[in-house]
Write a structure and sequence with these properties.
The protein has 225 residues and is an alpha+beta fold. It is built from 5 helices and 13 strands. The protein folds into 2 domains: 139 residues, Probable tRNA modification gtpase trme, domain 1 (Gyrase A, domain 2); 75 residues, Alpha-Beta Plaits, CATH 3.30.70. This is Sarcosine oxidase, gamma subunit.
Length: 225
């Protein structure tokens, strides 16, 4: 039996735009696995947009946050505005001296990151939970034309020579505040973009409009390596 977003209590803010997509279960929600019947890997390598909003993500802030995350086995970036992929496919973004954002992995449906949020309790130490599941949408702009797409919307130079893998920018794109992290999926270039959840529908459309020049399209996670 096919599944639909309406079968789940947790839905992407973009779920109505994925009505024609093939969906798969991911944890307690669903995600687009494909947007068509053709192999989407060629599109992903050229210019593609994925909605990862149903993958878990969470933030922590405080002078004790680094030690707490390291105790849980996370390897942390060495400086603010850097990101580091973890061995399990998750990622840690360091947004300031003492603020971190964890992005869940497709390999475990984000279970490790979700568990960090569920297990957190305030014990008096300066390590404060920053829920991000309902505040931010999470998009992935993949392919070799990603920086050219973003150049139409954003004043920050996101070309690889200026914004190498592991870089993070906190900026504005299409007049929406965004966090952009250069985190390739293996050999596949990838810009992970987190934006205000309430603006996700508008921002998705702005990205698709900017992608037209490069024959860019939405794809599902089956297109990823």
């Amino acid at each position: 039996m096919s599944i639909g977003a309406e079968h789940f209590s947790e839905r992407s803010p973009l779920y109505r735009l994925h009505a024609e997509a093939r969906l798969g279960r991911i944890g307690d929600s669903c995600i687009a696995t494909a947007h068509g019947d053709q192999d989407e890997r060629v599109t992903a390598a050229r210019c593609a947009l994925l909605d990862l909003s149903n993958l878990p993500r969470v933030g922590f802030r405080g002078v004790a946050s680094a030690a707490c995350l390291q105790a849980q086995g996370f390897v942390l970036p060495g400086a603010p505005n850097q990101a580091l992929a973890q061995a399990d496919g998750s990622a840690v973004l360091r947004l300031s001296q003492n603020e971190y954002l964890l992005l869940g992995s497709l390999l475990d449906a984000g279970a490790r990151v979700r568990q960090q949020e569920q297990d957190w309790q305030f014990d008096g130490s300066p390590n404060y939970l920053l829920p991000r599941q309902d505040s931010h949408a999470w998009l992935l702009l993949s392919g070799r034309h990603g920086s050219e797409v973003m150049a139409k919307l954003c004043g920050v130079d996101l070309r690889a020579e200026a914004f190498p893998p592991g870089s993070v920018a906190q900026t504005s794109a299409a007049r929406v505040n965004v966090i952009v992290a250069n985190l390739p999926q293996g050999e596949l270039p990838g810009l992970h973009i987190l934006c205000d959840r309430a603006s996700a529908h508008y921002f998705w459309g702005a990205l698709l409009d900017a992608m037209q020049e490069f024959d860019g399209h939405p794809v599902g996670i089956d297109a990823l390596p």
